[in-house]
């Protein structure tokens, strides 16, 4: 049986590598808006507590201001995450039924509209000196209906209906799985993350420079422009790739008739609210049933949920450091860039070295087992020998991927466990940090654990059934977003409750969570 490289018969527009520019643009757009949202919410609360008659007093360091700021940020993140959970199921069905390109296009459009709304909100205020309470024009703020935290939460609603980060990422992972071979899939997953982290290191620097020059609106406007570029590339350059067929090719006409009948039936009953609610609940529950109905997927889902919940501690990093020793936008951008560089180093250099060493050991073990089987199966030739050889060849063709998949799964499992330990170490070091230099060093060490992401994604692609891959990814998106939705309020709530007693408790809890994942 000949094995054809799926990449060789495609134009570059339909190859797996065509997704890399989209991953870069998505990460860049998210990174451009992330810090400006955090600091704009901070500015609003600083203005609310500002004391004009004592201009030299920095109210931004008050516990009340920091608690209000962290609450606003937690609400913003929770709104995005909760709404993303609601729409993950429908996006998964859309991805399986209409293709990955359609799902990505709709999600990108809504995320772009969210940044357009943030541009409108940020355009009402251009500070003379960014992040300084004395620079706030309180009169302009009081007359602006857009310059309140709830106005920024409207953007969170738009981004939430766009699926946030996870829905677009799930569609991109599905595209990689559709267009790559099993052997090369893990490498492509790692390369997509490298593109993501490279953009993550550029975005904070660009947004900080824009904030220093002209205010928040410029950063949000650039993010919206990047989303527009993403959409243009997806529509014009990227080829549409359909998911794997679930039936034989000969049943195409019958499937089409059945689909038409189902469509007409749905249209006749779509008018009732009960039916709409049932469809929505089914779209959410079905992907989770696929995940928890499979033992391996269920285990992966629990690990991913716990890991992302623990990583939610990094959402409090700016607020925590600002309270402990002060952190301006330039320092925050430096920390974000350092984390991105550490993640890229982990995937581009450390991970390939480990994979190479592990592969050599695994191949030696496989070769020894093969030699033993060859010697054991040697028999005297007779008239049945050709038939036996043919049967064994067929069996070998069907089973040839099993050892390699088992070896790959063992490899990714080891990588994931080591990376979870690195995450925990970085969190503990962050807790003990006393200045910005130590924070940068701690986050660099912790971010080396980012290689767990492609390893867990590779395990997911090995375990998920091809015909329901989009829905399985939707299920994992729901778990990821649920972890984010719970992590934000819980981590920020824990920080607010302990900010005057032990603000570093959030890092201890997160490190313990990652250690439980390791066990």
Automatic annotation (TrEMBL):
It comes from the Eukaryota. Residues 242-268 are annotated as: Disordered. The chain crosses the membrane at residues 73-91, 103-125, 150-176, 188-210, 216-236, 299-320, 340-361. The keyword Transmembrane applies. Keywords: Membrane, Transmembrane, Transmembrane helix. Residues 254-265 have a biased composition (Acidic residues). InterPro entries: MFS (IPR011701), MFS_trans_sf (IPR036259). It is found in: Membrane. The keyword Secreted does not apply. This is Uncharacterized protein. It comes from Hermanssonia centrifuga.
